[in-house]
Amino acid sequence: MKNIRDLHFEKEILPLFDFVYHEFSREALVGLLSEFQGSVEEILTRQEILRCLLETEKLYGSPAYSRSEFYEVYRYTEELKSRDIKLAGSHLKLHLLFVKSERTRESIQLSRLLHFFHQIRQAYFIHLKPGLYPAAFGDRLKNGHRFLSDLDLDKYIAITRRRKLTISETGLLLERLGEKTERGEIAVFWKDLFLLEAYLSIAQGIRKHGFVFPSFRPTGLALTDFYHPLLKEPVKNSLTVHKNVILITGPNMSGKSTLLKAIGLCVYLGHLGLAVPASACELSYFDEISIAINLNDDIQSGYSHFMTEIQTLKNVVVEAGRSKRCFAIFDELFRGTNAEDALVISATTILGLTKFSGSCFFISTHLHQLREAIAGQEDNIGLHYIECELTDERPVFTYRVQEGWSDLKIGQILFEQEGLNGLLRPLPLRG
Fold first, then answer.
1. Residue 292: enclosing H or E segment and its boundaries?
2. Contact (Cβ atoms closer than 8 angstroms) between residue 255 and residue 293
3. Rg for the chain (alpha carbons), in Å?
4. What residues pair up with 280 in beta bridges, in sequence order?
5. Which are the contacts of 33, defined by CB distance < 8 A and separation ≥ 6?
6. What is the DSSP string of 60-118?
7. Residue 79 burial by CB count (10 A; 0-12/13-18/19+): exposed, middle or buried?
8. 120-175 pLDDT, tens per residue?
9. In degrees rounded to 5, what are phi and psi of residue 92?
10. Cα gap 317→310, rounded to integer Å
11. Distance, C-alpha 378 to centroid of its chain
């Protein structure tokens, strides 16, 4: 179970790391940002790949190539794959000798291909040392080095800078590329290149935003100076929790949803093996992640807002009941039903979730009466609130999280400040 719809992947997560040049590498990037890692070991392996790339400063200069150059070369290699050239050796050279238009075309295309792969080698591969990377990724880099080496780039680049390729040279290169096409080496090279560029794009995002890699601990989590990276001037908060149910209170507009989104983003990115928006981060590993913020009616399923909340909660509880370690966020739990029902079932939910000790649940609420409903169970529940101060009877939002409970009600204050009491005062009865 991976319910991250409310993190708005395409609008909010992908743009943080999207520095690729074309849709093929972007597809690989989306894959990396969607692959929930199956263990702490897998997470640390991906972290190690990114750390190595981040330490190689020369990878982050000007673009390695233009989009037009890439598409020219990529289309040409795809054409070679579908062309199924049967001529070889002296027969191929003879064919090129008598078909001038094809000879000229092949020479131009091969020159573009050679210069493109030369740019790739100079921008990426001469700086990449496979032995520094985890084995599987290092093997991909070795394949890339081998593929480019087989093309004798230095030799042919020197030639094409002085003159056009001869018939013999054109034929030899076509034969070599034909062999690599038949063995699938070109397809593998492209796939590995797209993956490399996706990793480099993520690394560039990490560099740009100053994110940090999390470490992992058996239970709980500790976030230092975490924030939501899409805010222009974010208020950074720190939070350490050891209890598995954390209740967040605070008045409307105090920033509860944004706080929960920032926490959810840190947990999700951390489980992808990526760095997170914080100055330090320690996480537990979770098998399942569910983030429910600002739920709306599910039109496709025919569920009302309340039934969507119920179904989301049930999915999490079922997984936790199967001994899965679950991380879940429930923002303004059960606001889709009346206050009386919401109070009863919220108390049942909060107290019931405490039995899943290996999981972690963040719940925000606007129900002040819950404090009485869970009285005596505070030792099992972490209580935090978003600070809001009243200055000259006006609410001032600090967006800072504190330990404890907020009883502040600002609805009536804002109602009065906007003059609605006066505007809505009943007309005097006429005698």
1. strand 288-292
2. no
3. 29
4. 224
5. 9, 13, 14, 17, 202, 272, 274
6. SSS-SS-HHHHHHHHHHHHHHHHH-----HHHHHHHHHH-HHHHHHHHHHHHHHHHHHH
7. exposed
8. 999 999 999 999 999 999 999 999 999 999 999 999 999 999 988 888 888 888 88
9. -65, -45
10. 10
11. 35
- The Cα 381–Cα 303 span in angstroms is 30
Beta bridge pairs of residue 237: 226
pTM: 0.90
Instruction: Name 383's bridge partners.
Output: 247
What domains does the chain contain, in order, with CATH numbers?
2-209 (1.10.1420.10), 215-423 (3.40.50.300)
The pLDDT assigned to 299 comes to 46
CA 378/CA 105 separation, integer angstroms: 77
Burial call 80-102: b when 16+ CB within 10 Å, e when fewer: beeeeeeeeeeebbebbeeeeee
Predicted confidence at residue 48, as pLDDT, reads 98
Task: Please state at what angle helix 153-162 crosses helix 167-182, rounded to 10 degrees.
Answer: 150
* Residue type for position 254: S
**Amino acid code (one letter) for 361:** F
Pairwise CA distance, residues 197 & 284, whole Å: 29
Query: CA angle, corner 417, sides to 413 and 420, nearest 5?
Result: 100
Task: List, in sequence order, every residue forming a beta bridge with 298; answer none if it has no partner.
Answer: 303
CA-based nearest residue to 245, from 40, 387, 384: 384
Q: How far apart are CA 317 and CA 76, in angstroms?
A: 53
Structure tokens given for 424: 């809505």
Tokens matching residue 174? 């076509």
Hey, what are 305's tokens?
């807002």
User: Band of the pLDDT at 87, cuts 50, 70, 90?
Assistant: very low
Res. 300: pLDDT tops 60: no
**Among 180, 185, 141, 176, CA closest to 155:** 176
- Which residues, in sequence order, are bridge partners of residue 212? 276
- Do 65 and 24 contact (CB within 8 A), yes or no? no
- pLDDT tens-digit map of 10-47: 999 999 999 999 999 999 999 999 988 899 999 999 99
Name the amino acid, one letter, at 152.
Answer: D
As to burial, measured by CB atoms within 10 angstroms (0-12 exposed, 13-18 middle, 19+ buried), residue 117 is buried
The candidate with the shortest Cα–Cα distance to 124, out of 17, 197, 188, 19, is 197
Amino acid at 275: A
The C-alpha angle with vertex 231 and arms to 228 and 235, in degrees rounded to 5, equals 70
Residue 287 pLDDT = 96
Q: Which residues contact 115 (CB under 8 A, 6 or more apart)?
A: 69, 157, 160
CA distance 122 to 58: 10
